[in-house]
Amino acid sequence: ENQIAAFHNGETAILFNSGFDANMGLISTLAQKGDLIIYDELIHASMHAGIKLSKASSLSFKHNDLDDLKTKIPTDFGGQIFVLVESIYSMEGDFSPLKELCLFCEEKNIYLILDEAHALGVLGKKGRGMANVEGVEDKIFARVYTFGKALGAHGAAVVGSRILKDYLINFCKPFIYSTALDLHSILSIKWGYKFLLNNENQLIKLNKLNNYLNERIITNPAPFKMVGQGPIFGIYCATNQKAKNISRHLISKGIDIRAILYPTVPLGLERLRFIIHSFN
Description:
Low-confidence stretches: none
Number of helices: 11
Shape: globular
Helix content: 40-55%
Structural class: alpha/beta
Mean pLDDT: 96
Distance between the termini: 32 Å
Order of helices and strands: HEHEHEHEHEHEEHHHHEEHEE
Radius of gyration: 19 Å
Number of strands: 11
Strand order of the largest sheet: 1-7-6-5-4-2-3
């Protein structure tokens, strides 16, 4: 935990068994009756689970729309306000306007919670994430780093203050009443971070491939709608059946692109989701 905190330039860290447990446990434990949670409409299901388990009120704001968020902030509010966002959104593949969010939340005394699941190992110096890219690691109340994506391991960590960690140790039920990660998982995480520190080649290659694809998309517009800044991209297919049919065809040709279907994504926004890897 100390090594993870040091890597992410945080005061301390606390390990959870998964990103889902970390988000659900963090949010449900922090937000109390009389508090307010305001969340980006496209946050992960684990954050929604935490919201439902908390006793706080909640409402959403339009995806990555800071102006809409501002309209949702009540005046003279008696409780705490939490804002929930992701670095890279798992289905849209686009980036959060993190620096602007941090400035706004700091100005309004709002607690910002950032899910860095898809940014760890992909963005920032040696893969430290988007908060590192934007230089705002010290301005975010809680950051969640999930190890099941680029790191290829199990578990997750919440990075934040010592007071936050002590509070979670004493009150967070998904942490208290779950069996701790086994030694193999702990070592996998430890060596995953060591790999990030000592091997930049894959990260450099990934970013080159990502930049290349983005340039090609701009210079050679496709005859279909795409979303994403990378390394996550999506191609809209309009119906579940169409998405499944195209996915099956591509897989039969050796291209492993999966269909993302309603209700995981909104009706009419079914898509093929593809991810750039350094070895593609």
